[in-house]
């Protein structure tokens, strides 16, 4: 819990045999974050928890490793609501299989050679007050489009999906938290995930969202993944609102090869209400 100085050899090796590295950094210096994670030639698991303040230059994380398999980056700032903090991340890791990013602000990401990536979790907050371009989330997804499993928070999609969305040709499992923009994002994602087999939806928002805001509008074209590939659907946080019933009916109607549907209610929904909801679904 005290300050210390870690000097990374210029162009040299810092920890030649370390396979697992976990670090907690507070207002880190770029001299450290640009060199340390490139100086461990045997690294397989990396976990960084960084706390940034609103003052000083942009924090830059450079992660370059031919052996890295798992990477977790957790970035927090002092003032989440109106923070002026900024960070950039560059990842080059041809052996990386799992990538987990958590942050209360959206940094700028550039990734290279993530040919082995199969599991991605993006748990990122994006608020109306943010000065960051919301398209950063979509640009990041485009760079991660070879993953087979994706978990994404509502903050990473709410303010960018309507402009364009990348094709996720290899995606088989998708878990998405749907927030203030409602179900409108769902057809866009499904149409881009042509080989999707498993879908998990979480109705979630940091603020109160009305049924009208969520709304479900059936599109003219049914996503191909529903017609040919999706075998399991799970919906979490169900309260019994009309928009949920319409969505369930739509998914049951068009998911031609569906084998399992799981509906998880909020704790506030009583057992009689749950039975009523089930009886109200029209097939």
UniProtKB/TrEMBL annotation:
Domain of life of the organism encoding this protein: Eukaryota
FBD domain residues: 222-263
Record-given protein name: FBD domain-containing protein
Organism: Citrus unshiu
